[in-house]
Amino acid sequence: MNVFRLAGDMTHLLSVVVLLLKIHTIKSCAGISLKTQELYAVVFAARYLDLFVHFVSLYNTVMKLVFLASSFSIVWYMKRHKIVRRTYDKDHDTFRHYVLVLPCLLLALLINEKFTFREVMWAFSIYLEAVAIFPQLVLLQRTRNIDNLTGQYVFFLGAYRVLYILNWIYRYFTEPHFVHWISWVAGIVQTLLYADFFYYYIMSWKNNVKLELPA
Amino acid sequence: DSEDTKHDEL
Questions:
Q1: Are A108 and A46 in contact (CB under 8 A)?
Q2: Chain A positions in Cβ-Cβ contact with residue B2 (cut-off 8 Å)
């Protein structure tokens, strides 16, 4: 495993830790999109079907289980926890799941590396992950006061995507058979979605003012 | 093989 990949996994993990911290200790999910969290739970469930088939490494298995467990528990907290769910900004989180899920499913049926159940689900999870942040970005735009933890959560998620691209570039030059167009194209699209957010995040940090996205 | 390099990522 190269340093970009490890750093990518760690920022991904950090984003989950930041979100759980907010939910668990502050008992708030204000500014967090339930739609995005539900989409992530679907993404991990579809992609990690290989847990039952492949064993890659202990690291790999543990990380997959952590992402599965954390994504489902975040959804549970936001929907069922009696204090947390009251802080959910339902009125502004109006993005419809099927707008993203259906096109991704269709695309996965058409463009995949092999037409088998697991490969189609893998491609579906890659496409869906690329756009799953959309409801969250829309909610951020509608949120007047973006708190620090929410901003950091999205920032770490974006950093994870940038680091994964560096990891692919590194692997492309060091591993002869490492070519996965599906994940590369989807990954680049996914990273570009964060570009706007990154700009405003860095500006707010530089000028030491509160993060706010223009409507 | 190619399948393994894909599934080792998260």
A1: no
A2: 177-180
**Nearest residue to A8 (alpha-carbon basis) of A118, A141, A120, A171:** A171
Q: How many Cβ pairs closer than 8 A exist between chain A and B?
A: 32
pLDDT of chain A, 215 residues: tens digit per residue: 899 999 999 999 999 999 999 999 999 999 999 999 999 999 999 999 989 888 889 999 999 999 999 999 999 999 999 999 999 999 999 999 999 999 999 999 999 999 999 999 999 999 999 999 999 999 999 998 899 999 999 999 999 999 999 999 999 899 877 778 899 999 999 999 999 999 999 999 999 999 988 87
Residue B4: its chain A contacts at CB < 8 A? 54, 56
Closest by CA position to A160, among listed A25, A6, A2, A31: A6
Contacts of A178 in chain B (CB under 8 A): 2, 5
Segments making up each domain of chain A, as ranges: 3-207
Q: How far is B10 from chain A (nearest CA, A)?
A: 7
DSSP assigned state of A50: G
Residues in A 131-160 with any Cβ partner in B closer than 8 A: none
In this prediction, the answer to ipTM > 0.90 reads no
